[in-house]
Amino acid sequence: MADYHESFFDESRPWSHLKNRILGSYMTPYLAKVSKRREKIILIDAFAGPGKMADDSPGSPLIICKAAEKHAQGKYKSFFFNIKLDHHKRLEATLEKGGYPSVRPIHGDAIAELTKLISSLRDETVFLYIDPYGLDCEFDVLIPLLNRNTEYSTEILINLHMPITHRLGSRKALGSEDSDETRIISYHEKLTRAYGGEYWKDVLLSTEFDNAKDREKRLIELYREKLASTGYLNFTGACPVREKDDSQTKYFMVFASPHPDALLLLNDNMCKSFNTFMHDQAVKNTFFADSSWSDWRDPKKLQDVVVEYVDRYKGCNRKEIWQRIVQDHFMLFTSSEYKKAMKANCDSERIVCVTPIEKGGTRRTQRLNDYCVFKVPE
User: If you write DSSP's letter for every residue of 344-374 in order, what string do you get?
Assistant: First the structure.
């Protein structure tokens, strides 16, 4: 594991750009919204690194700081933790050069420092980003955040390392041809602490699943349920991070939020970021290099889903139906695709809008809006 710690930020990994793209695409609208709250904003990067990647592109601390200075200047404090002194010093120099006054880089054990910081929270708005070395953040660390007063705003974005998950969940010890029972038990206990329960055994040790990606999908679904189990951070989602569409999953970026708007926002951001990255990786140096990922999308599937959900959730408006679709089909469709599918279904009369056009009402023109209610014709 030591070598992995050393090289984590010092190699140019294609999937690192996907993680940073998702983080960056969320920070701007998130901070623009929460900056309107009266509470102080606390931004935490638990495994911050040196601030820049090996190719000199901004790392997570710079992504967070730049968005915060633009949209929440004077209203936030950032805490960046590093266990490596070299990373800490490099981050200090980078932040000093950038002139970020509301930032505190901290050298020390990330989990110990994070635990102390969480225990000191009161009514602040909190955003926590955890991109650990492997599975170095145990679920118990998050529990105080999951149990916060529901009046407060808390967002968690955490990366879960899939190759290490599979290796620790193996029936055999790492690097061992035999069944070293003691070592296997210690690995399994680490997984239990990381995922917050032994439910992972029903997935990783089961013969029910045909391949690793199916196992991962189910494991992350259960992890999301665990994050939402207290009834506070009810809105969760996850994005796979991999080099190519058919390659091994490196991470799942999992988020948890108390607000449905975060679910809808991250659905769009993760869908666009993931598909753009996958498409660019697939078509680079080919005839299709100038094409867009959206050029290959089939609208028919979403149109069918819309009809199904309009019929299932009678009386719900356009926004409510979209939220239900996203909860069940996270990251498969975007909001713009959904609105087009709604209009296409109305034009073809597969569904009809029953919200009357009234002067001063929620529907003032023929144009559809989020408050329109639909039904499937008899």
Answer: HHHHTTSSEE-----TTSS--SSS--TT-BE
**pLDDT at residue 6 greater than cutoff 60:** no
13 pLDDT higher than 80: no
Give the three-state DSSP class for 284.
coil
Strands 352-353 and 374-375, sheet pairing: antiparallel
Tokens coding 221: 């679904």
Say which residues have a Cβ less than 8 Å from residue 374's Cβ, sequence separation at least 6. Answer: 310, 318, 321, 342, 346, 351, 352, 353, 354
Q: Which of 183, 164, 172, 230 is nearest to 205 (CA)?
A: 172
The answer to whether 37 and 120 are in contact (CB under 8 A) is no
- Note whether 237 and 300 are within 8 A (CB): no
Give pTM, 2 decimals.
0.90
Nearest to 291 by CA among 304, 300, 282, 302: 282
Q: Is the pLDDT of residue 350 over 60?
A: yes
Distance of CA 105 to the CA centre of its chain: 24
- Minimum mean pLDDT among 61-65, 158-162, 175-179, 251-255: which range? 175-179
Pair 34, 40: CB distance under 8 Å: no
